[in-house]
């Protein structure tokens, strides 16, 4: 596939979760456990890094990841354990305005889906009680599929699950590489910065009145 078909009309909206629907910051948790700012900076740059965390997004179980890292950094074993047991504290709340957009879309009968890089175990601990997802018709979670964005395979999985041809899918993500991968398959894509800009883009696409 080679980009969006200019004649294709988007008919369904696919949301990323982190930094589109919910804010996320590992430092919010670790800052409660490491008082010294320079030590906190070092820990986030060298121990529980985004790259290390991404292994769980891609399907590696915490029971492998956490003990392995604790063995390498025994002085911070308790902080690494908190990553496993207190992960929801890294998610402080919704991104302003996007939940209202989801409700407008579902209220208008527009099919809404999710495609998120999220560890399976963390998703199972986060999803309950988050009623914004109740109106989603399906959510593809990378940790369950054991493949993460921007790998083309996760977009292929979403296409099969959602039941829409690529040209009907309007994808919202905060990472340019994830948007580029979607567009390469023929999806429409919007690089998320804020809810107001997103609302305009959805209106221009004919998905919001």
UniProtKB/TrEMBL annotation:
**Top-level taxon in the UniProt lineage:** Bacteria
State the Gene3D superfamilies in the record: HAD superfamily/HAD-like, Putative phosphatase, domain 2
* Pfam families in the cross-refs: Hydrolase
- By its UniProt entry, which SUPFAM superfamilies does this protein fall under? HAD-like
Signal peptide span: none
Q: Which InterPro entries match?
A: HAD-like_sf, HAD-SF_hydro_IA, HAD_sf, PGP-like_dom2
Protein name, as recorded: HAD family phosphatase
What is the organism of origin for this protein? Aurantiacibacter spongiae
